[in-house]
Design brief:
- The chain is mostly helical and 131 residues long.
- α1 crosses α3.
C-alpha cells in the first residue's frame, strides 16, 4: 500500500507543478532565458519524455520523503505539512539557489523554482500522511 501512497503524493506534486508553472510560465521563461519560437513557445517544444522523467523524479522525492517520515515518526497531516515545507524550503531551495548563483541566473528564477519546491514538498508531505 505504501507504493500507492507514494504515487498519489507524486501525482499531487506533479499537478501542483502544472498549475504553478502554468501560472508563472512567462516570468519563469524570461528568468530562465528559455529560447522561444516565433509563437513565443519554448523552442523545440515540450516532449513527453520531459513529463515522464519529471513524474519519475517526483516518485523518487515522494518515496524518500515517505522513508524519512517513517524513520522520524511523522504521521500526522500537520507534521507532514511542516516537514514537507521544511524539506522544500531548507533542503531543495538552497540547492536551487546555489546552482543558480553559479549559473549566474536571476534571483527571480530561484524564487519561482524554490517556491514550487517548497509548496510541492509540503503537498507531498500532506498526501503521505493522509493514508
Amino acid at each position: 500500500m505504501e507504493i500507492l501512497n507514494v504515487i498519489a503524493a507524486a501525482i499531487a506534486g506533479f499537478v501542483l507543478g502544472a498549475v504553478w508553472y502554468g501560472l508563472l510560465a512567462e516570468p519563469w521563461m524570461q528568468a530562465a532565458k528559455v529560447p522561444r519560437d516565433e509563437n513565443g513557445k519554448p523552442a523545440g517544444g515540450q516532449t513527453p519524455a520531459v513529463f515522464i522523467a519529471t513524474f519519475g523524479l517526483q516518485i523518487v522525492v515522494a518515496g524518500m520523503m515517505r522513508h524519512v517520515f517513517a524513520l522520524s515518526g511523522i504521521d500526522t497531516v500537520g507534521g507532514g505539512l511542516v516537514s514537507g515545507l521544511g524539506v522544500g524550503l531548507f533542503f531543495i531551495t538552497p540547492w536551487i539557489i546555489i546552482n543558480n548563483l553559479y549559473g549566474v541566473r536571476p534571483l527571480r528564477l530561484s524564487v519561482i523554482d524554490g517556491g514550487y519546491a517548497t509548496l510541492a514538498c509540503g503537498t507531498i508531505g500532506v498526501v503521505l500522511t493522509l493514508f
